[in-house]
Amino acid sequence: MPSDRDLISDVLVRRLREARYVVALTGAGMSAESGVPTFRDAQEGLWARYSPEQLATPEAFAADPALVWGWYDWRRQLALSVRPHAGHRALVEVARRVPRFALFTQNVDDLHEQAGLAAVVHLHGSLHAPRCGTCGRAADVAALPPAPSREPGRIEPPRCLACGGRLRPGVVWFGEPLPAEALQAAMQAAGECDLFLSVGTSSLVYPAAGLPGVASRAGACVVQVNPAPTALDAVADFNLAGPAGVLLPRLVEAAWGAGPGPPRA
Ligand code: BV8
Ligand code: ZN
Q1: Which residue from 114, 86, 78, 51 is spatially nearest to 225, judged by alpha carbons?
Q2: Is 124 a residue of the active site?
Q3: pLDDT tens-digit profile of 166-213?
């Protein structure tokens, strides 16, 4: 299938308007226009000399818990300070317009929830759900000490109030399995949908990166929104080259006109 770079074609608009079941997969690029650096953007400050893949591992946390906890706490504080953009709101509008919609995100922020999306499945966990590494109990984020305002740095992970074990970030690290239920739901949704929308992901991290292929092999129309080429270009039926905050609203307007319309029948 030819891919339409830069073009929101009539064919694509009709596929979206007629879609019975739209599944969206989002990555760090979806949060970029809200001010959250993408996962592979150059790291800043204390972590400039580490790659995210090095830090987002159980081994890094075991070797230097304060370095890794400090990184996540800084990211959590940043995630608390950002707001959804027009692209997040456009996905909420798609969810209102099509008969069935599901969104799976690799992101660990809560921007989709803030934008009003009812059901968001986090494939890689959440910055807002730290838990005890020993007994697994969820930690009360509100009770966590605020991160120091100075340049983000090492912070000793707090202790679990129930068992005294060390808290850990509530994310899925490299080498850790994704939540089984979430992955199963994503695989099933990808296999059943008729339009799969991949937004803002480099399509490098598995098993999430395998989802568009599952959809394509099941006959779905695969649409990618990303300013840069990715491994998905070869699979997608439509490659819209540009930022999510610009192209998603444009896609929704082309399909259903501007402004919020009636919820789906
Ligand atoms: C696992 C949470 C097995 C932490 C993350 C094959 C099969 C299975 C596994 C593997 C495999 N090959 C290799 C593996 C291992 C590994 C993997 O995939 N490695 C890669 C690097 C090759 N996978 C795993 O380890 C997974 N676990 O498979 O376990 C297992 C099973 C049973 C028992 C034991 C073990 C776990 C993967 C999850 C890791 N955790 N995050 C944290 O956030 O700190 S992954 C991390 O990468 C983030 O979640 C991020 O979301 C994700 C993917 O990155 P992207 O979202 O794509 O972000 P990125 O920066 O890369 O790209 C941003 C994109 O946005 C770019 O394309 C850019 O052009 C675009 N963009 C920029 N601006 C915009 C934009 N797009 C739109 N609009 C814009 N404005
Ligand atoms: Zn505990």
Answers
A1: 86
A2: yes
A3: 999 999 999 999 999 999 999 999 999 999 999 999 999 999 999 999
Q: Per the structure block, which two tokens stand in for 200?
A: 């803002």
Domains along the sequence of the chain with CATH:
1-35+84-125+178-265 (3.40.50.1220), 37-81+131-168 (3.30.1600.10)
Ligand 2 centroid to Cα of residue 121, in Å, is 25
Q: What is the pLDDT of residues 123-161, one digit of tens each?
A: 999 999 999 999 999 998 888 766 555 545 889 999 999
In this structure, which residues have their CB less than 5 angstroms from ion ligand 2? 132, 134-135, 137, 160, 162-163, 165
List of residues 6+ apart from 199 with CB closer than 8 A: 24, 25, 26, 27, 29, 30, 87, 91, 224, 225, 226, 244, 248
Q: Which ligand is nearest to the CA of 165?
A: 2
Asked if residue 243 has its Cβ within 6 Å of ligand 1, the reply is yes
Q: Is the CB of 136 inside a 6 Å radius of any atom of ligand 1?
A: no
Q: Atom 17 in ligand 1: which residue has the minimum CA distance?
A: 205
* Phi-psi domain of 93 (left: phi exceeds 0; alpha: psi -120 through 50; beta: other): alpha
Q: Would the pTM count as exceeding 0.85?
A: yes
- Ligand 1 atom with the shortest distance to the CA of 209: 18
